[in-house]
Amino acid sequence: MGKAEIGRIFGIPIVLDASFVLLIALFGFGYFTSASLVGVSYGLALVAGVAVSILLHELGHALAAGYWRVPTASIELNGLGGLCHFARNMPADRLANIVMLLAGPAANLILWQVFSTASDWVLQSGTGGPDRLAFLLRQLGHINFLLFIFNLMPAHPLDGGRALVQVASKFIGYDRAMRAIAYLGLLVVAWLVMLAFGGQMFAALIAFVLLQANIEVLQTHGGPRWKRWN
Predict the structure, then answer these.
(1) Strands 12-17 and 72-78
(2) Contact, 42 vs 32, CB < 8 A?
(3) What is the largest CA-CA distance in the chain?
(4) pLDDT, tens only, 136-154
């Protein structure tokens, strides 16, 4: 799929991958097919809010990396969320790695509070028209809370899983830590598959991506010799 640079923030190129249409469909499809101008407008605002939330998550990584003089080559928005591409390897210091990894979820935690507080303020300011705006802000707050929780899950290549590797590797070694998180990642995959059977079809896509990532880690770091999918 194609990619295009759509702007720069703090000199960092922001790249939009064509697969981002998956997230647009996930959050906006029901509104875009409502045959209502109000519904379509709400869907556009929701998708824009989600995009900004993902962007700020990745900027959290980038700004934390900048503190340790690790430049960011680009930030990519794609169908699974986003990626922060660093221009060089992350520092060897465990604390630096953990801070850089958790800075993204921390941004979502802050956004959850900001959107929730803004929703309460709008509701208190009046009735009628502001109610729709308050609901949008509340929904964006909920989405950021889910992003915060999801990114902290113990699986590769999620921020929480990678941060846990940094902690566990101090006690059991890097390869064992990578394998331990990969096994936990397979449990996360099983949970996502159950969500998919419950009707959350986007969970099936995420489960497939995480399954491949965690099996690859087991193959690379001395785990069971799983057969590759290709």
Answers:
(1) parallel
(2) no
(3) 62
(4) 999 999 999 999 999 999 9
